[in-house]
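Researcher: We're reviewing a set of sequences before deciding which ones to prioritize for further study. For each one, I'd like a predicted 3D structure that I can look through quickly. This is SEC14-like protein 1 isoform X1. If possible, include the structure in token form so it fits the rest of the review sheet.
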Amino acid sequence: MAAYERRFPTCPLIPMFMDSDTVSEFKSEDGAVHVIERRCKLDVDAPRLLKRIAGVDYVYFVQKNSLNRRERTLQIEAHNETFSSRVIIKEFCCYTVHPENEDWTCFEQSASLDIKSFFGFESTVEKIAMKQYTGSIKKGKEIIEYYLKELEDEGVAFIPRWSPAVAPPAPVSIAAQPERPVSAAISIPAACAKESHSSKEALGAPGSPADPLAGTPDDKLDADYIKRYLGDLMPLQESCLIRLRQWLQETHKGKIPKDEHILRFLRARDFNMDKAREILCQSLTWRKQHQVDYLLETWSSPQVLQDYYTGGWHHHDKDGRPLYVLRLGQMDTKGLVRALGEESLLRHVLSINEEGLRRCEENTSVFGRPISSWTCLVDLEGLNMRHLWRPGVKALLRIIEVVEANYPETLGRLLILRAPRVFPVLWTLVSPFIDENTRKKFLIYAGNDYQGPGGLVDYIDKEIIPDFLGGDCMCEVPEGGVVPKALYRTAEELETEDIRLWTDTIYQSGSVFKGSPHELLIEIIDASSVITWDFDVCKGDIVFNIFHSKRAPQPPKKDTLGAHSITSPGGNNVQLIDKSWQLGLDYSMVASPLICKEGESVQGSHVTRWPGFYILQWKFHNMPACATTSLPRVDDVLATLQVSSHKCKVMYYTEVLGSEDFRSLVFSFRGSMTSLESSHSGFSQLSAATTSSSQSYCSSMISR
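Model: Here's the predicted structure for SEC14-like protein 1 isoform X1, in token form for your review sheet.
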């Protein structure tokens, strides 16, 4: 055992064994039994593509070592924590003394592997697991002998056998300290076992000052209260909850969260007190700053959400968890972001989470057992490349970041149904932002796999399966559809939100005037970087250009528009290209001009050939005059009336990607194109045109 313990917290002889943390530890009073549980971090030798699809760089195993010095046995049990809903790995090892020769050690080992599903890579995962397991068996004896020799080199050649102590010191009992006061924060009234919320609130009453990290034998919660409201807790976990709550009562100025909420943060950090306290304090500050506790009373969802947001609560699952249904494939994500802005969309998602917490409390009372999380059912029928609209994905990632930080351990299970072949692309983008403990709760079904054994009926009663999934229960979730562009809001309108949860916004706005284009500067350090953009022409017709210059333009100047005798309240017009610059000498055009009509949405990218300064330009489009007559055309007259002030409006978003990131995205895109060849988007048509410039030999892709 002394040699074996030297493998922790990490072992250089096992390259894939990166690190380990102690989760729990127990030692008997006489020292005969020592049980320690560790969480081990492994870097599995797997293809990079498989890791990207799975969304993990490392996998985690839980290992429990039970040493019994009295019986002279060491038992080692291990199981995978990562992807435990998809792959089940169990391993058991046992070291014992040979019954006929006490100088011999017997070793037995067994393991099992059960792969339920893994994104279509089941056979690959099986081969990887068998390879890793076989390699570890071959090196097991070598590693033990290495550490045995290390002990011998240090002069440790013999460790005395355990024997009971003759006069063990008497343990300090509670009775030995009758004068010690018991704080109100620790003493749980008997009424806690009742099903009244008032008795639960009594737990949050401030008590007398005490050391927040001092756990004493009388630090116990009422057993009935634990069973009724918190669920199974190990003694160490119970102690962590009491200490953290007591620390909050003594230091936190404001509302003390309920035990269930504190417990979520402890579970999210594997009951590491310091880590849980840090994220809990940050969350409490965030809730107070943005008045989240009053969100359900103050937030009223706009009509566009009620009509086009395809999500809603729907009964509960078999475990009593509230069930939330989201028809993501039918949602116009771009339309919602453009019509609502990120702030309103985030507030709506937060209100869903707050409602989920409330429903968990209700279901706890209804079912008579602790329910602290909910189940989410996501239907992906209709998902295609339009959902990979980059600003929308970025907004989604930011929402995930806020939810992960402030609502840990609230998702009990996520059922993803009818996942199309384009889904791995979205999963690759989103999964790295989702906590490992959350990812392992995902169950993904392709096509109609959810209808058979092991599918939806294992988690939801047949009577409440929604009608759009083949069930008999009417689901009142909106069917979604295209958000009318008439509901889109400008950047200026979105910036007038009263209370901001984010300090910035994805979209910027620009005003374009006749003779005064709007320009954006992007500095490129590394050649072969990729400039991506997405913009909407809100008013008028414009010409979109991309230029390159080796020297930096003068600091941006906003056109006062005095020369044009035009007033532009709130207009944002920035010009970078100096009037004295000559095209072809001071700067060059790197892609063919693109004429964009009012109401069009344009997405595109440009692979840069050189470092330097790139300028994106939106320029007023002059209507060509009729060649055969000097009289104006009817279309020209209508266009002049439509844009009487010679003003155009664009809302745009840009981002610079490294070449490696862009290649990974294109690779995933191409891998999913097979499923898109026959699909038709109800929101937009995707068309790509590749152009090249003789001046730069770079490629650009622009799509409407």
